[in-house]
Amino acid sequence: MPTSDYQYEEGTFDVTPEIKRDFDENGYVIIRGILDKQEILKLRQALELEEGVKKHSYEISDGSGRTVRLCIWRHPGNDVTGMIARMEKTAGFMGKLLGGEVYHYSSKLIQKEPHTGGQFKWHQDYGYWYKSGCLFPDMGSLYIAIDKTDTENGCMQVMSGSHKLGRIDHTFVGGQQGAEAERVNQIGSRALFDLVPLELNEGDACFFHCNLLHCSGQNNSARRRWAIITSYNRASNNPIPEESHPWPLYTPIQTVPDDALLRCENFTDLRGKAFVDPATDKTVKVEPNSLQK
């Protein structure tokens, strides 16, 4: 089974040719400890504030009676959560993995609560980003574990190397979009790819390609599972501008040093983040009473 597993070392770590090969071959790389304990504590403080990004969250159905709570924003902003998207060890690394300048496409807080958190079906992020005018799969996401994530609390799983399949058609499953079930079943029945559970500690990260098939299970444990996912698009892949989708066109990232998260004291000034309104977002379906009270 491919590992694609590395340990972050402050001041010395960089995307090496070996890491780039792993990303290209397997569709993902794990970088452990990309955020240290102090950074995670500060990020948690920002995410847990009732007057912070959390107040913009809403629930979507997983198609099996459970829900997942999300909060999505289109621009990083200048608060603590915005620093995640703008550092060299996040945006800079993603640019090196995708082979060129990137810009912030979206960020997402995923909240899976104990005993009730729903699942995400097998899907590719490009399955719905394609529908938002992005012509090429020159996109990727950075998953950072806010809480310890393992099979017990429904961690993310990936099919290593499945990004080589190309884009699969996606349809709605409950309130979320999933890859065409029959195609996923055919892929699984042939055992084409290793199934890798992303068991991560707080502060560990996974960079993954937009066509990588991934899913996550329900949280049946007594532990919550929160994560933040920041997604990037190549500057050269500027979407076709359409009124039908509000996702961001190319906007250069205002980069910050790697210590910016620790130095930032802005927890609640969320101006400029452009939170997604689930009522107009065509990538999800929500119930009218699902918005955060």
From TrEMBL:
What cofactor is needed? Fe cation
Q: Which domain of life is it from?
A: Eukaryota
Q: PANTHER family from the xrefs? A: PHYTANOYL-COA DIOXYGENASE DOMAIN CONTAINING 1, PHYTANOYL-COA HYDROXYLASE
Q: SUPFAM superfamilies, from UniProt?
A: Clavaminate synthase-like
Give the species this sequence originates from.
Answer: Branchiostoma lanceolatum
Task: Name the encoding gene, please.
Answer: PHYHD1
Name of the protein: PHYHD1 protein
Instruction: Show the Pfam families listed in the entry.
Output: PhyH (PF05721)
